[in-house]
Amino acid sequence: MKQTSPSSPWLRLLNWFQWRFKSRQTARFGKNRGFTLIELLVASLLTSVVILISWNGVISAMTMSQVAEVRSARQSELNKALDFMTNEIRMARSINQSETLTANGTTVTLENVATSGGIDLTALGNYGTIGLYLGTTYQS
After folding, report:
1. What does the pLDDT look like over 68-94, one tens digit per residue?
2. Count of structural domains within the chain
3. Domain presence at residue 6
4. How far apart are CA 74 and CA 117, in angstroms?
5. How far apart are CA 86 and CA 92, in angstroms?
6. Which of 6, 58, 83, 96, CA to CA, is 20 to 30 A from 72?
7. In terms of C-beta density within 10 A (0-12 exposed, 13-18 middle, 19 or more buried), how is residue 131 classed?
8. Is 11 helix (H, G, I), strand (E, B) or coil?
9. What's the pLDDT tens digit per position in 28-48?
10. Which residue has the higher pLDDT, 63 or 136?
11. Residue 139: inside a domain, yes or no?
């Protein structure tokens, strides 16, 4: 009785490999025959592809981990610098002196930073700009 072939090409390929394996086990004179060179090449090719895909995943995960670690360290350094600046400004008696700062080709003039309404650091810009004035590097 002949079996009907499955509709999926993958199932047909699997059935073919099962048939080849069974026919090798019951070879002539009861001896097992080896695999052909093409079968060995296909197996090594499939193994190589799986290893390559796994390796790329590991490398990608390591790279993302390093980037996250560097960003976290930079953010921590920037937070420490901002805490230091805040503490120094709170302890200062007067910082209403006019001063011009130049960083990365951009000039900022600080005038009346401490006012009666509190401390205004909006002239400095965002975290990256403040970090640039402090001499640190920060990438967003």
Report:
1. 999 999 999 999 999 998 888 787 765
2. 1
3. no
4. 31
5. 10
6. 58
7. buried
8. helix
9. 555 556 778 898 999 999 999
10. 63
11. no
**Cβ partners under 8 Å of residue 120, min gap 6:** 112, 113, 114
Under 8 Å CB-to-CB from 74, ≥6 apart: which residues? Answer: 131, 136, 137, 138, 139
Residues 68, 73: Cα–Cα separation, whole Å: 9
Domain housing 49: 36-133
List 118's β-bridge partners, or say none.
115
On the question of pLDDT at 111 being above 70, the answer is no
Q: The pTM is what?
A: 0.39
Instruction: Quickly tell me which residue has 């073919």 as its tokens.
Output: 16
CA distance linking residue 123 with residue 78, whole number of Å: 17
Q: Is residue 16 part of a domain?
A: no
